[in-house]
Design brief:
- By secondary structure, the protein is an alpha+beta fold.
- It contains 9 helices and 5 strands, in the order H-H-H-H-H-H-H-E-E-H-E-H-E-E.
- The chain has helices at residues 12-19, 26-34, 43-54, 57-61, 65-69, 76-98, 106-117, 154-163, 184-198; strands spanning 124-130, 136-144, 168-174, 203-211, 214-217.
- A hairpin with a 2-residue loop joins strand 4 and strand 5.
- Helix 2 packs across helix 3, helix 6 packs antiparallel against helix 7 and helix 8 (154-163) packs across helix 9.
- The longest helix has 23 residues, at 76-98.
- The radius of gyration is 20 Å and the shape is elongated.
Length: 224
């Protein structure tokens, strides 16, 4: 049955307009992006298949062009549209950070980092460089490792902080395994970076560990 024949309260678009986007399932939100299905499948059916095939939104968003377009009904146009939507979301969150909005709270930073790091298949270490008003100067991916470890060099982070004339930094890395709990090595690294940056009067405001849609803040847990 086509979506147009569904009861109005069950159609994704009408449901969103009536109750807001938070009331929709992942498949319903994706269906609104897809707009149409394929022969014999509604947009919601196709969305469910995509989520099942890729293993959720994060992995779908991280899919490479060849894998995405290999799905029946998903071509280059849809891939380009999806990448544009994701990039607009990243830039919107980035604008908030550049303005220093909510940097006293980890919420905005979490959203920004999860969107950019959650789906990475390998471990990466990023640094957000901040000015004296906690506005974002730049975000840099400084180190990239395997699925299990990353080599992080404190001297390089200190050099980049001085280059940006940063007053503070926020550290972040991901756990591709999906477990966000920091390891003992993560805590030792944080202490080492905090000490190294302290020598040049650059504060470490937080360290986030990103895994899937979750992110753990060292500052929130009192680990700094």
């Amino acid at each position: 049955m086509p979506i147009t024949d569904w009861p109005a309260a069950e159609r994704p678009r009408e449901k969103l307009l009536l109750h807001g986007p938070q009331a929709l399932t992942d498949a319903e939100l994706l269906a609104l992006f897809l707009r149409i299905g394929v022969r014999g499948k509604t947009a919601v059916d196709l969305a469910r298949e995509l989520l099942a095939s890729f293993g959720g939104l994060n992995k779908l968003f991280a899919a490479v062009r060849s894998d995405f377009t290999a799905v029946h009904g998903m071509g280059d146009a849809k891939f380009a549209q999806l990448q544009a939507v994701l990039e607009m979301a990243r830039r919107a969150l980035g604008e908030s950070l550049h303005q220093g909005v909510n940097l006293s709270s980890p919420a905005a930073v979490k959203d920004y980092l999860v969107l950019g790091m959650a789906s990475r298949p390998h471990e990466v270490f990023c640094v957000l460089f901040l000015n004296a008003q906690n506005g974002l100067i730049a975000t840099e991916e400084l180190f990239r490792g395997t699925l299990t470890q990353t080599s992080v060099y404190p001297r390089e982070i200190v050099k980049r902080a001085l280059t940006h004339n940063a007053a503070a930094v926020i550290l972040a890395h991901n756990h591709p395994s999906g477990a966000a709990e920091p390891s003992q090595a993560d805590r030792l690294l944080t202490d080492a970076l905090k000490n190294a940056l302290g020598l040049v009067d650059v504060r470490v405001l937080d360290h986030f560990v990103v895994a899937g849609r979750s992110a753990i803040s060292f500052a929130e847990h009192g680990w700094l």
